[in-house]
């Protein structure tokens, strides 16, 4: 039995109510605020984690800017990442996600409530459009989360090269960059079985625009990546 099934069994009595609420909110989405949608999904995620033999430790919450309108840059380890981030972050944020997420029926309806920015990574034009949209959201006081590695093709706590292009959104919006490091987030869904997992979310000190505006995107990407490597060692 994998952890997906285990979590489903432990929450069997909640699933019909969640499904009804998600369907209702998708049908009449204009009646609900983004904050309301986010809190509903976050509450669901917290319940699933509690029943899933997963403990999430959050460090550095005090590093989050007091005012919304920033971009979080996190490493990407697995399908539990989104749940770990929703657990850690009380303030709503928009994910930058690949178009492929629309291929998973239940996930598609959940993601729509979180108002993500979709990107077709096979198209340079669409990738740039998505980065522009992220910048626009952040500039208007919304929070955005980007996975600068752009893929999951790696092993456990290893990092792939952070793509400089992902950081263009921060330069466009002139907003704080908040590095986030996920550790052991691959454990819940990428490992077989459903033994106890300890996942860590490290929120690092933000970099204000004045601290990075004279750097190249390659330099900023390298700096944020090195900070993540120090946590994962």
UniProtKB/TrEMBL annotation:
Identification of the protein by name: 1-acyl-sn-glycerol-3-phosphate acyltransferase
Keywords, in A-Z order: Acyltransferase, Transferase
SUPFAM superfamilies, per database record: Glycerol-3-phosphate (1)-acyltransferase
InterPro entries to which the protein is assigned, alphabetical: Plipid/glycerol_acylTrfase
Residue intervals passing through the bilayer: none
Cell cycle found in the keyword field: no
Keyword Transferase: yes
Residues annotated as domain Phospholipid/glycerol acyltransferase: 70-185
PANTHER family: 1-ACYL-SN-GLYCEROL-3-PHOSPHATE ACYLTRANSFERASE
Pfam families xrefs: Acyltransferase
GO molecular function, one term: 1-acylglycerol-3-phosphate O-acyltransferase activity
Gene Ontology biological process: phosphatidic acid biosynthetic process
Organism: Roseburia porci
Source organism superkingdom: Bacteria
């Amino acid at each position: 039995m994998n952890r997906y099934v285990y979590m489903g069994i432990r929450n069997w009595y909640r699933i019909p109510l969640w499904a009804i609420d998600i369907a209702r909110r998708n049908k009449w989405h204009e009646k609900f605020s983004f904050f309301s949608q986010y809190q509903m999904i976050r509450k669901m995620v917290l319940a699933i984690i509690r029943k899933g033999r997963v403990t999430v430790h959050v460090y550095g919450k005090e590093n989050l800017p007091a005012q919304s309108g920033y971009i979080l840059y996190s490493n990407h380890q697995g399908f539990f990442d989104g749940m770990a981030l929703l657990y850690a972050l009380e303030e709503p944020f928009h994910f930058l996600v690949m178009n492929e997420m629309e291929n998973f029926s239940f996930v598609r309806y959940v993601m729509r409530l979180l108002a993500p920015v979709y990107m077709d990574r096979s198209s340079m034009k669409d990738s740039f459009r998505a980065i522009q949209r992220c910048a626009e959201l952040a500039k208007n006081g919304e929070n955005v989360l980007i996975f600068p590695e752009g893929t999951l093709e790696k092993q456990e706590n290893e990092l792939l090269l952070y793509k400089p292009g992902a950081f263009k959104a921060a330069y466009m919006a002139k907003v704080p960059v908040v590095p986030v490091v996920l550790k052991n987030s691959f454990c819940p869904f990428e490992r077989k079985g459903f033994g106890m997992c300890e996942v860590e979310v490290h929120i690092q000190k933000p970099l204000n625009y004045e601290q990075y505006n004279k750097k190249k995107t390659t330099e900023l990407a390298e700096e944020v990546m090195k900070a993540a490597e120090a946590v994962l060692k």
